[in-house]
Amino acid sequence: MTRLFGSLFPVEMLALWLADSLLSFIGIYVLLLPSGARVMEGAGLHPATANPAAVLALTIGLTSLAIGLYRPEICLRARRLLVNTVAAGIAAFPAILAASLAFGFDMAHLMGSDRLGLARVLMAWLACLLATRAAFSAACHRGMLDRPILLIGGGARAARVRAALAGEAHGFFRLAAIVPPADAAVALDARISGSRRRIWGVVVAGPVDGALPDMELRRWRAAGVRVLSDTDFEEQHLGRIDVDALRPGVTAPPSGGLDAPVRPPDRPIEACLRRAFDIAISLAVLALTTPLLLLTALAIKLDDPGPVFYRQERVGLNGRPFMLLKFRSMRVDAEARSGPTWAANDDPRVTRVGRFIRRLRIDEVPQIFNVLQGTMSFVGPRPERPHFVRQLEAALPGYRNRSVVKPGITGWAQVNFPYAASVEDARMKLGYDLYYIKHRSLMLDLSILLATVRVILFQEGAR
């Protein structure tokens, strides 16, 4: 991971995105260059071509990022990569046109009058993408991007690390060996000395202090070996907090210790910037989706008798209740007999129109009015019902601390984990929520908004 504007990003994916963007800029620049013009003018680029090429390359790069082309599980699977590449290419058409309009570029003049200029730009991007992916695939096959992990310890905590490393989302990490603490020094020395393949780092299933001799720790770190506890590894490289390592009343373990205070309130200037961000994004989305909202309201009214909107009490900032607004996607009497229950796959309570709008997350759009009202933020933990909050607070340490920030329409947990339909699912999502609270920044919010496009487009986790 590398830190960029206060947020952590996988260094391999960041390098791949930068390589794609640079090659795309070069390819688009050469393609748009007027006939007879030199690639370089003196000591610089052709200015009338370089500016549009940079905007187009950046627009395509951000579109690809939003579609999910820079997730490890996508890059490591050819079929998923192909699907996402096609989706990114389709989405890039309106994105390029919008960017050209916003910056005042005469794309008809730049691309020619044969109506194939935009297609050629996308083909140039695709050629650059194929080149970088070929190099990336070769590096993966040669093990150049592998991060072998030596896991020290056993029990439930070691089992959680093994399960996490088995997931494709963290495919660059590879479990090299599992050794008990008594054999750790011998196993690691063998790899440091070069008699066996070197490792990227050591993960200790438990606190590092006291589990390993201080002299050995200093020697390993001097040799360039990273030594992390399982909680630090999960936070720094998997993007979530280990909920089982928390005590009640604790938000997140800092770099060593479980007595971290709850996140302090935002500074006034930060709170103002965040509020302005929420209002600007909400108004933009509302302006773009107004026709869709009207069609959805009409479809709900024609499909099932009852109100168009659904108001439900949820728990908000500092545990205060508020009324959440959504499009109604279930029958009016959905919980008349069962009471509050988790939504399930193919839930019989969902109407025909409701099933469609839930898959595309259209039912969530009216929450924009909650954001404008100030009871929600655009990005934050999902607001939960009081019934489930009481249930989850009793079962999960640290659950109450989700309410130290405003709930959101989308969030870090929503883009990294499917819909929670059980206490165990809620435990996993809580780990992501607490990570977001601890590392919250506008840059992280922007990355979540981009990832939300992917979640909606591919219907990830919808029920």
Structure description:
- The chain has helices spanning 11-32, 47-67, 72-75, 78-103, 107-111, 117-141, 155-166, 184-192, 214-222, 230-238, 268-303, 352-359, 368-373, 386-395, 412-416, 423-439, 442-457; strands at residues 2-4, 7-9, 40-41, 44-45, 147-152, 173-179, 201-204, 226-229, 309-315, 321-327, 377-379, 408-410.
- By secondary structure, it is α/β, with parallel strands linked by helices.
- It has 3 domains: 2-141, no CATH class; 147-238, Rossmann fold (3-Layer(aba) Sandwich), CATH 3.40.50.2300; 268-457, no CATH class.
- The strands form 5 sheets. The protein has a 4-stranded parallel beta sheet, with helices on both faces. The chain has a two-stranded antiparallel sheet with strand order 1-2.
- A hairpin with a 5-residue loop joins strand 9 (309-315) and strand 10 (321-327).
- Helix 2 crosses helix 4 (78-103) and helix 2 crosses helix 17.
- It is globular.
